Amino acid sequence: MKRIILNQCWLAPMAGFTDCAFREICLRAGAGLVTTEMVSTKGLVYDSSSTKDLLFTNGHSDHTAVQLFGSEPEFFAKAVQMPEIQAFPIIDINMGCPVPKVVKTGAGSALLQNFKLASEIIESTVLASKKIVTVKFRLGWDSQNIVASDFAKMCEDSGASAVCVHGRTRAQLYAGKADWEQIEKVVNRVKIPVIGNGDITDAQTAQERIKNNGVSAVAVGRGALGNPWIFSDFSGKEFNQNRLEVIKENYLLMAKYMPAERVVPAMRAQMNFYIKKLNLGASVRNQLNRENNLERVLEMLADVIKN
To answer: Is there a domain that residue 172 lies in?
Structure first.
């Protein structure tokens, strides 16, 4: 596993954000590991082209984990044996997604209420694959049902090699503060590595969490959006400090990996995070956000960089 993990500061999986282009940017910046967006086991097994598109890595799979979600052990067993999964050294099972359309299928955070099924999914995945299997989950369903320590122990007993704990409950979604005391309790409960996730917004915080809370690594989610520099600050790796040039590079990578008509809509959310940190006038920001033509966006970025 040491050959796979470059350092202790990782990019967490985020649906709609951790596409191949952004993962590549973060690896260039010094991320210790990156993870795909959530990939449906059923989508894989039923040969969904849109699902398989999420697995494209452009040769960066050595330091990329694939995150799978679902609620049926047999689909996990089939999915991890598919050719598209073989390039990834780590399989991460999502048991923390709070989104209703995922939860209502019995997947994601719903599994925090079903230890038996969660265990069967982990065991099925471990038995069907020789790869490293990790599990990402939340503290519990709500503040009255904090189960993280027991859930982590179940994951360990079921064969997981590591767990990643998001310090919020399902009920919190992304509101409030991550509870790192609960994450620390998980660290003290299990022998396998624990990765902490939640409210990591800069390299200093990442280093403090590793030192003070005992986690083996941190996974950075929203703190990395528009801010791949968090990884270079942590790792000391040289990375382009010109924000506009990095935005342009992100666009060009997207254009390389997906049809041109999809690039601008797909990048728009990323763009909003990037430009929050720039002192651009409102008219420039609005133009960049409203423009739908890729060539025009690139021209506008080139003009702003020049000026």
So the answer is: yes
Half-sphere exposure of 136 (CA within 13 A, CB side): 33
Pair (266, 208) in one structural domain? no
What is the domain count for the chain? 2
Q: Tell me the CA distances in angstroms from 103 to 109, 113, 151, 172, 263, one per residue in order.
A: 6, 11, 17, 14, 29
DSSP string for 25-46: HHHHHT-S-EEEEEEEHHHHHT
Q: Is 164 a catalytic residue?
A: no
**End-to-end Cα, the chain, rounded Å:** 46
| Residues 63 and 192 both lie in one domain | yes
Which of 184, 176, 221, 273 has its CA nearest to residue 9?
221
Residues 292 and 202 occupy one common structural domain: no
In the chain, what percentage of residues exceed pLDDT 90?
Answer: 74
Q: Which of 20, 26, 97, 164 is catalytic?
A: 97
Specify the pTM.
0.93
Of 56, 75, 68, 62, nearest in space to 92 by CA: 68
